[in-house]
Amino acid sequence: MFEEFLDIYLDDLIAGFPCYSSPRFSTSIAASFSGAESRNRNWMHPLRTFKLPEAVREHAQYEAIQDHWLVMGGPERSFPFTDPLDFASVALQLPNVVPDISALDQDLGVGDGVERDFQLQKTYERAGETYTRPIYLPQDGEVLVALNGLPPDDGTLTGGPYTWEVSRPGGVITFTPAPAAGLEVTAGFLFDVAVRFEADDSFDGIVQSYQVSGFSDLSFVEVRPC
Description:
The protein has helices at 59-72, 202-213, and strands at residues 20-24, 27-31, 37-41, 47-56, 79-81, 106-110, 117-119, 121-126, 129-134, 137-147, 163-166, 172-176, 184-197, 216-222. It is mainly beta. The protein folds into 2 domains: 20-82 and 195-222, no CATH class; 106-192, no CATH class. The longest helix has 14 residues, at 59-72. The chain has 2 helices and 14 strands. Helices cover 12% and strands 39% of the residues.
């Protein structure tokens, strides 16, 4: 799923907020002599960059980020990060505040009696247009699942009761047995993003900034699964 992924969070000493969270697409734009344009979207899903301004302010934080950077091999390995602006199956009321989630938040598909695996996903909507984002790092213990609005282990469900598990990394819910035809699969969840340090020389910048000004920013880049 993710090459060289270590499921180790940043030390709690490193504050994840305030945070700049910037998704970006790759788009090729060709302009003709008339000024007309043609545009081609190269990526189906955006990649995000995260910046924590002045995240390292004291020596204990410096030591914590140094340990993390060394264990990760700089940008070699990726690790989980919770985007304080988007980490739940529902819209946030406030940044970095956990909202109430329910098993009905997101539609994942409809059972056909054969398929057992359903990918977690979050759909964003504006004026009838939608974008659906796959979720690969659900937070442990923070996934709620329903079939036709009922708990999967409800004995009244056709073909039930059902058991389920969810992968991390992966974000795939696997049912036993496969949901019967017509059963609507929904879920609610909290999730993380796989990120890496920005570059090989990023820690050098952290050291210099910290020594000169007494604080340093941290920058991470989202990692796309293979």
